[in-house]
Amino acid sequence: MRRIGNIVATILEKLRTEIKAGINTRQLDAITACELKKRGAKSSSKGYQGFPAHLCISVNDEVVHGIPGERVLREGDIVSLDMAASLNGFHADAAITVGVGEIRSQAEELLAATEGALGAGIGAARCGSHLGDISAEIQRYVEARGFSIIREYAGHGVGRELHEEPQVPNFGSSGEGCLLQPGMTLALEPMVAAGGWRTKVANDHWTVLTADGSLSAHFEHSIVITKGEPEILTQL
Ligand code: MG
Asked: Which end of the chain is less congested by CB atoms within 10 angstroms, N or C?
């Protein structure tokens, strides 16, 4: 999992540098396919319940599961890249949201709140704590900044399968849920909206959008619980 985590992190950083006004999202998918192949890794998204691309790309009011295509990125857009891949039978899953050129201050704040919430959730992922401690910490961090946690999608266990038990909601109460134990591998992934938390699914049956059209951001890491600090597997 460390190896595939490193690969996912490396490719996401490469994509971050490729993002600029004028590029279309299919080109980012092609780069991902090429970089995965170079490293002998396989996209976990491609073919997952029929998903047609190597990663999910969700722009502005799209929350998650956007399909790369002909959409051309424009100055001021925010772009969420969610990549899951496998190597030797183990998966890793991570996401970043990137601004295209100059973005509005509200968008900057949304990105900072979402990335900060991921950090807060990771900070709560300690051996002997409960799953709900992670959920509560993420929710508290986001709501303190005036944003909403998307409720219909959650983090998850990750390992031999892309999605394993337990589900890791991004809202809840501390002290609830299972006890965290060394060796557990989890994908934490706050999805945050600038407006309300309700979502809808587009006609392509994949793309999830905020119901009110507000901006949304998404950051994710795969981590392993240890006896001390959690180890982040998808960080360079
Ligand atoms: Mg995930």
From this structure: C
Size (the chain), residues: 236
> Taking Cα atoms as reference points, which of 78, 74, 71, 114 lies closest to residue 99?
78
pLDDT (tens digit per residue) in 47-103: 999 999 999 999 999 999 999 999 999 999 999 999 999 999 999 999 999 999 999
Distance from the CA of 19 to the center of ligand 1, in angstroms? 22
Contact 158, 92 (CB under 8 A): yes
Output the six-digit token pair for 12: 């996401």
pTM of the predicted structure, to 2 decimals? 0.98
CA of 51 to the centre of ligand 1 (A): 14
* Distance from residue 75's CA to the centre of ligand 1 (Å): 27
State the DSSP code for 120: H
Amino acid symbol at 180:
L
DSSP string over 54-105: SSEEEETTEEE-PPPSSPBP-TT-EEEEEEEEEETTEEEEEEEEEE-SS--H
**Which of 188, 93, 191, 193 lies closest to 131 in space, CA to CA?**
188
Domain residue spans of the chain: 2-232
Topology (CATH) of 2-232: Creatine Amidinohydrolase (3.90.230)
